[in-house]
Automatic annotation (TrEMBL), chains A, B:
It comes from Nibrella saemangeumensis. InterPro entries: CheY-like_superfamily, Sig_transdc_resp-reg_receiver, TCS_response_regulator. Residues 18-144 form the Response regulatory domain. It holds the Pfam family Response_reg. The modification 4-aspartylphosphate is found at residue 75. Signal peptide: none annotated. The keyword Phosphoprotein applies. Keywords: Phosphoprotein. This is Response regulator. It comes from the Bacteria.
Amino acid sequence: MPNNLFNAYSKQRVTRTPVLVVEDNADQWTIIQGAIKECFPEVEAIWVSDADQALAYLEETKTQAGQLPKLIFLDLYLPQREDGWKLLKQLKDPAMGFSLLPVVVLSHSSQPEDVEEAYDFWLTSYIVKPLDYDQWISALTALRNYWWNVVTLPGPQK
Amino acid sequence: MPNNLFNAYSKQRVTRTPVLVVEDNADQWTIIQGAIKECFPEVEAIWVSDADQALAYLEETKTQAGQLPKLIFLDLYLPQREDGWKLLKQLKDPAMGFSLLPVVVLSHSSQPEDVEEAYDFWLTSYIVKPLDYDQWISALTALRNYWWNVVTLPGPQK
């Protein structure tokens, strides 16, 4: 299912600002997609469900000016946390060409070792997943006010 | 003057949450300090004016639990941008022991090469310095709502 979605997106040029969501759980994706639609009406949320799909999407889009995602939301447990770590390391490796993309980790885990290890891997920020939809909305609203209105992001989108 | 301030802070245990401000311009520091006081009443803003002082402060505090700054605000031009880059690289080098501290760059420059290079060096976010005090207040309010209320930061402060 996520695979189909990714293929559908990759065949059409995305005209709205893309944001990549790497999430292995379809129910979680439904919630995140709804919250993104509500808080970021100008954004096209692209769903991929594992590291291989994420890298394939980025490789494909990095040759299209302005099509690289403005932000990446990364679920740490994909489904093992090692999968998330591995992808985060790849994204932040300058040789891969994506290291300037901001990566926001969304994770159910609030364990200090997960939080600290993620910052050690140079993620942008670590968010423990909200428990209900209203909390998702207030978290994404605060995220938008900061990242869209205060911060200057790399790339042509800003 | 910043040196004296740093020495004064280093001799007393900071009981409020420390935030480190690396800024070579005293007038800018006055504005930033005022805006931090207004938006972060529980925070102790620590001022250092160059890379050596910043590293000395961090080295001294990393042995005191809970005393490492929750966030670092880094002026890129100290006064040359090479000085800011060098410090940013040192802060993000895992061997130095500070790589998990979030670094927010505050810079007058909105040049794409400065913005992109900063993200390439794994900074947390890049903010072009606001032009007046009211803009500083709204930028720091949005920053607080995101970093304090939504994000989980590493370390014992959270």
